[in-house]
Amino acid sequence: MTEPRGDAAKWWQTGVVYQIYPMSFMDGDGDGVGDLMGIVSKLDYLNDGTEKSLGIDAIWLSPIYPSPNRDFGYDISDYRDIDPRYGDIEDFKLLLREAHDRKIRVVMDLVINHTSDQHPWFLEACKGRDNPHHDWYLWHKGKNGKAPNNWFAYFDKRAWWWVDEVRKFYLSTWCRYQPEVNWRNPRLKEAMFDVIRFWLDLGVDGYRIDVVNWFIKDEKFRSNPYRLQLTPPDYQKHIYDRNRPETHGLCREIRQLVDSYPDRFAVGEVFTNSPEEAASYYGNGDELHLAFNFAFLFRKWGASNFLREVDAWDRALKDRGWPTYTLSSHDQPGRHYSRYAKGKETDRRARVAAAMLLTLRGTPFLYYGEEIGMSNLKIARKQIQDPLGKKYWPFLKGRDPARTPMQWNGSPHGGFSTAVPWLPSHPDHRVVNVENQKGDPDSLLSFYRELIWLRKKTPALCRGGYRALVFPPTDCLAYVRAHGDRSVLVLLNFAGKRVTFTPPVGTGNDPLEGTWQVLFGTDRGKGSRLDVSTAIELDGYEVLIVQRTGGAG
Ligand code: GLC
């Protein structure tokens, strides 16, 4: 298995990133939609420098640029401004200052695979074939009046849309309102690179880059081959519209640009379920600083399932880069609190999942509200906002269920807004909310908070190597995180019943000898001693983190 290696020291490796969906985090001006001043008002909750706050190190904001909101900000009509629904550029500068004062870094979403169809570049591009912006997008005259190939659009009926003025089709593999840009055009590329500089110059700390593996399309627009799968988009092998080899060169250039600013980083959304594909965007340490691997989001509950994914991710990454881990996001398939729900055991499962996320070797990305156990809301058809839900109802309900307002307290709309919110609050906000949990040492929020601060103070946890001590099939995860002469052992029981962890014999260079002390746990007193060289009985869903205090190494 993976031997300890890789000494991470950058803030984007050791820190915890917290994703904010701005429409749903906090409404500062009472219009039912979250905004920047709302976020500012909650920064102390996220990190006020004391262990009373959650303690996260960075916030990633889903897009806040002006947008017609056909895909909720992922269709940008101006890359250099703030959508009025969130505030203005002065509010943004204030947010940056206030966040930085609290040592919270700010990560922007960068959606540069496509723009909105309302972006002035696209409006110009549609005016004529000789317009200077025309070639900034991907066009084709079609074949016999039809689309030139079989490419698939995620949110729409088709991927090619006719424009009379230029007598050509433009490409959008999302929805028709999201035309895709032509990265082979040097002027478009320079304009996008200027956008990247613009926000870095303002002081943002990094970017989450949207669908980075879709940037470049086959030059000949060849049709994808089909394969035996019933559901779109998997019935095509996406070899011509995704992961084109030239994308890596582009990622290297983006890396150089971002690295020309001190201490910044970029994490790519690689839209795939293959860890190898995701890993390829680290290049040889010269492409993106980090990439998401969404494997966890699609795994059923079970220690073996997660262990296999950790192993696959490690093998795919080799020494190329530092892993990332995440359990929930604003995209499918919803919040993990609901995914792993099992009656009365749900809350304990959420703790085991959180402990795994926050102690594996890699950067954890949290999704707003997971720290209090927010769950998916059932959305009635007429309330659906998400284009994905509109297209696939009733087979897919879309992404709205995981985008509901943050639950701050038990008042109407969960304290998110004084107005009716853009998406309804989950009715469980009366009980499941920050106010109820913040003073309760046994709450899920306290669990996250304690673990995040422990991680910060424990180099082995935030930057150490990783070595698994169990192999599938297993009910529990057991791994050592080691840094320098410090070793931490993490034991997580994914089963609702008692399980015995038997330490492997002859573990070679890192024996479990010596004296170990409980750092954190659900069932044992902090500071108590533990002999980890013999079998350990773990209670159902027990979380146990121990540190070697003496003896070997
Ligand atoms: C990414 C975003 C998603 C969006 C899509 C199109 O996958 O995470 O929310 O719909 O890109 O921009």
Descriptive overview:
- By secondary structure, the chain is of the alpha/beta class.
- It folds into 3 domains: 15-115 and 185-404 and 438-455, Glycosidases (TIM Barrel); 120-171, Alpha-Beta Complex (Oligo-1,6-glucosidase, domain 2); 465-550, Golgi alpha-mannosidase II (Immunoglobulin-like, Sandwich).
- It contains 16 helices and 19 strands.
- Strands 9-8-7-3-2-1-11-10 form an 8-stranded parallel beta sheet.
- Helix 12 (346-359) runs parallel beside helix 15.
- Residues 71, 74, 111, 174, 210-211, 269, 271, 330-331 line the site of alpha-D-glucopyranose (GLC).
- Alpha-D-glucopyranose binds at residues 71, 74, 111, 174, 210-211, 269, 271, 330-331.
Give the SSE map.
Blueprint: H1 11-14, E1 17-20, H2 22-25, H3 36-41, H4 43-46, E2 58-61, H5 89-101, E3 105-110, H6 120-125, E4 139-140, E5 160-163, E6 168-171, H7 186-202, E7 206-209, H8 246-259, E8 265-268, H9 275-280, E9 290-291, H10 303-317, E10 324-326, H11 336-339, H12 346-359, E11 363-367, H13 387-392, H14 434-438, H15 444-457, H16 459-463, E12 465-468, E13 476-483, E14 486-493, E15 499-501, E16 515-521, E17 529-530, E18 536-538, E19 543-550
Helix pairs in contact: 12-15
